[in-house]
Amino acid sequence: MKYRVPLELETERLFLRQFQEEDWLGLHKYYSDAEATRYTVGKAFTEGETWRIMCSMIGHWQVRGYGPYAVLEKSTGQILGPVGFWYPNDWPAPEVKWALASEYWGQGFASEAARKVQSIGRAYLPEISLISFIHSDNQPSLKLAERLGAVLEKEVLFRGGIWKIYRHPKE
């Protein structure tokens, strides 16, 4: 598989790279947090479920040539969560996703990582019109999409709820 985007990215405070086997426990901070996962997967995951979702993110790179990055805080080396490209077979379009453990909310990490991913998408995937696909009750993510310059395109019924499709700018 030829990867379509860089395998590693860096921002002022963050390092983004593909997930590695030892990352699952750090990733479990996000997936075991019922509040953090309320609008994404809808429940707290077991350790086994976290390991399997991490493997699906690694596999996403193999199938699509791009995928979610593991976000590490440079100063601590801690895994904050996944941010990157996501396009499961039931999604309306490829998206820029972000999902951080709640202890990292409100510190600008999601915005910093998502802006970097946006710029990489524009540079390396110019033929793809990226979205963010967000549950309508997830106010923090809706606000972040708007801060990133994404524009509400439409609402759709998905998995029993109303989800909003925000289209990211090409420039």
From TrEMBL:
Domain (N-acetyltransferase): residue spans on this chain: 14-171
Keyword hit for Transferase: yes
Entries under InterPro entries matching the protein: Acyl_CoA_acyltransferase, GNAT_dom, N-acetyltransferase
GO molecular function, one term: acyltransferase activity, transferring groups other than amino-acyl groups
Keyword list, A-Z: Transferase
Keyword Transferase: yes
Pfam families to which the protein is assigned, alphabetical: Acetyltransf_3
Superkingdom of source: Bacteria
PANTHER family assigned to the protein according to its UniProt record, in alphabetical order: GNAT FAMILY, PUTATIVE (AFU_ORTHOLOGUE AFUA_3G00765)-RELATED-RELATED (PTHR43792), N-ACETYLTRANSFERASE DOMAIN-CONTAINING PROTEIN (PTHR43792:SF1)
Protein name: Acetyltransferase
Organism expressing this protein natively: Endozoicomonas elysicola
